[in-house]
Design goal:
The complex is a heterodimer of chains A (about 170) and B (about 425).
Chain A (H helix, E strand, L loop, with lengths): L10 H26 L5 H5 L3 E4 L8 E6 L2 E7 L2 H8 L21 E5 L10 E3 L4 E3 L6 E2 L5 E3 L11 E5 L2 E4 L1
Antiparallel strand pairs in A: 1-10, 2-3, 3-4, 5-6, 6-7, 7-8, 9-10
Chain B lengths: L11 H9 L2 H9 L3 E3 L8 H20 L9 H10 L4 H28 L8 H23 L4 H12 L8 H9 L6 H30 L17 E3 H26 L29 H9 L3 H13 L4 H4 L11 H22 L4 H28 L9 H6 L4 H4 L13
Antiparallel strand pairs in B: 1-2
Helix pairs in contact in B: 3-5, 3-9, 3-10, 4-5, 5-6, 5-10, 6-7, 6-9, 11-12, 11-14, 11-15, 14-15
The chains are: A alpha+beta (about 170), B mainly alpha (about 425).
Chain lengths: ~170, ~425
């Protein structure tokens, strides 16, 4: 091909740019389905709500319920535990948040049992009347708030509504 | 791969074929007459050992895939089915599982050899970078393979490693949902990991071909770290190095077989014989031994994003090695101060591995941080400065001189050592 250099853009330059642009858009539109197929599918999205019966949960008891493939911790907190956890000054917290903002009913703590560090499920334990993550040693208190790193955030509070005082729908 | 081929086909069919596809000439010049430095020690056999391990892993893996089911409800039982019912299934699985360990053992020796003898220095930077890519692909492959049996360690290992990406600011949760195909590790995750675990070894094989190509342009480095200057410095690949590599592979296979037949679960974890349970994390989760140093680095940093970044940086730093090491002397043999820092680095890596295997406590976190500091100081401070400050020993004039000693080379030379390889002494 002969090399043509002109000061003005030629019709051929416009064609090159237009062809390349269409080619990129075309390639991107084909790549997107290949990428998006990995996102959560319809059957996974359909399982997004879980109903929990609170009647059998005795005061002081923890239960673990599966929601969206993840554990949800439900704790029936005695009034004394609520008092203690509400007395903690904000300055002591890694991710400051009041207990009042994290529960709808003081008695019932409902949090997603996924450590905000790298996703392990914490066990009941630790120095704060809450949970201890076996993977990297993060600790949470009786409000599911992180009290000891490396986790950066409090345990997530899922969306939930009380259908009756003893039945809650998560999701 | 080393200039025009000198291959002359013996048969008429050979000549006919060679004119149409000169692959035999390529093999001949790459693996028969290819000149290798004559002073290579046994640390140079690990390239051959690694090629053998790649083939072994692909063969055992493809056969295991004929019996394995990548479904969260069936995967665990299908692995037990392989162990109990499939003919020689136990052997294939133990070879494959221990093979991963052997693969990493060999690659770490291979990398440390490169580090000690300066094999990454000009003109071998691209060769080294391709090696770093192979190492990354190996880590991804090994991680996904460990998830497939769908035991407790599989599940929680997958959870922790995929959650590393949740440290990405803003998009973290979208990235993890995309990786999982759900809101947590589950059936879609297992399925795609199986697909990718099957794919990646072939990508490794592709990069290995590039790695060997890039090796055959300048040729192998050697313990003296000086380039071959005459044909007296080299020997043809066959029979000298085919036999030597072959012998090393056989010795390595004995070591491998000992684990496969006598302690097949030595590197495994008992928890992985419990089926995956998304609601209960095992009391202690630890990765496979070859990831322990990186795991220790992750745990040494008390903040999430910096911890994840430091861990990735500890691997990425290898890619910058050719430009971080400023010394003009290639081989560590002639660098008295480097040698000391090198061996401390090896001990530091082993120490990090040990820390990674222990429960988190204040003592392990402190030790982890000290070792982590040395790890990065070695690459980012010691190597750049040492090249400027260290007085290296006299580098030999040639490979022959290095082999025969600096003085009285001629007198000490046994008959035939200096002869052309084609001439018997």
């Amino acid at each position: 091909m002969t090399d043509m250099t002109t000061a003005e853009p030629t019709r051929r330059d416009i064609l090159y740019i237009a062809t390349t642009a269409v080619g990129i858009v075309g390639a991107a539109s084909v790549i997107w389905p290949l990428i998006d197929q990995m996102n959560p599918d319809l059957t996974t999205l359909a399982l997004s709500k879980t109903e929990i019966d609170l009647k059998p949960v005795a005061p002081g008891q923890n239960i673990v319920v599966k929601w969206q493939g993840k554990p949800v911790f439900v704790r029936n907190r005695p009034p004394k535990m609520v008092e203690q956890v509400r007395a903690v000054p904000m300055s002591e917290l890694i991710d400051p948040e009041t207990d009042q903002a994290r529960v709808q009913v003081a008695q019932w703590l409902i949090v997603v049992g996924v450590c905000t560090h790298l996703g392990c499920t914490p066990n009941v334990g630790g120095d704060y009347d809450g949970w201890l993550c076996p993977c990297h040693g993060s600790q949470y208190d009786a409000s599911g708030r992180v009290r000891h790193g490396p986790a950066p955030l409090n345990l997530l509070v899922p969306k939930y509504v009380f259908k009756t005082p003893t039945s809650v729908v998560v999701g | 791969m080393s200039g025009p081929s000198t291959y002359v086909p013996k048969s008429a069919f050979g000549r006919w074929f060679e004119q149409r596809l000169p692959i035999m000439g390529l093999m001949h010049s790459s693996f028969i007459v290819f000149p290798n430095p004559r002073n290579l020690n046994y640390f140079w056999t690990f390239g051959g050992i690694l090629s053998f391990m790649l083939v072994a892993q692909i063969l055992t893996g493809v056969t295991l895939a004929m019996h394995y089911v990548p479904d969260a409800r069936l995967a665990f039982n299908s692995v037990e089915h392989i162990m109990r019912d499939v003919n020689y299934g136990w052997l294939l699985r133990y070879m494959h599982a221990n093979g991963a360990t052997m693969f990493f053992l060999a690659v770490y020796i291979h990398m440390l050899r490169g580090l000690y003898y300066g094999s990454y220095k000009a003109p071998r930077e691209v060769l080294w970078l391709l090696g770093v890519i192979i190492f990354l692909l190996m880590m991804a492959t090994a991680f996904m393979g460990y998830v497939l049996p769908w035991g407790q360690m599989s599940f929680w290992g997958a959870t922790v490693i995929t959650n590393l990406f949740s440290a990405i600011p803003v998009f973290g949760n979208y990235v993890t949902a995309w990786l999982w195909g759900g809101f947590s590790v589950g059936d879609p995750t297992l399925n795609r990991f199986f697909s990718l675990h099957y794919l990646l070894p072939f990508m490794i094989a592709g990069v290995v071909i590039l790695h060997i190509w890039a090796l055959h342009v300048p040729g192998s480095n050697n313990p003296a770290g000086v380039e071959p200057k005459s044909s007296k410095d080299t020997l043809p690949f066959h029979p000298y190095f085919t036999i030597k590599d072959g012998f090393a592979v056989v010795v390595f296979m004995i070591f491998f077989a000992w684990f496969v037949f006598f302690v097949p679960n030595f590197f495994g974890h008992a928890d992985n014989y419990n089926p995956a349970n998304p609601l209960v994390t095992p009391q202690e989760i630890v990765p496979e031994w070859y990831f322990l140093p990186y795991y220790a680095i992750l745990r040494s940093i008390p903040y999430k994003l910096p911890g994840v970044l430091t861990m990735f940086a500890s691997i990425a730093v290898f890619a910058f090695l050719p430009w971080l090491d400023t010394s003009r002397v290639r081989s560590g043999t002639y660098r008295p101060v480097f040698k000391v820092f090198f061996w401390v680095f090896v001990l530091c890596g082993i120490g990090l591995g040990y820390i990674g295997s222990q429960r988190v406590s204040d003592a392990t976190i402190l030790a982890g941080r000290l070792l982590l500091t040395y790890y990065f100081v070695f690459f980012l401070v010691i190597l750049p400065l040492l090249g400027l400050l260290e007085t290296p020993r006299q580098v030999p004039a040639s490979i022959s001189a290095a082999v025969l000693g600096a003085k009285g080379a001629a007198a000490a030379m046994p008959r035939g050592v200096g002869a052309e390889p084609s001439v018997k002494g």
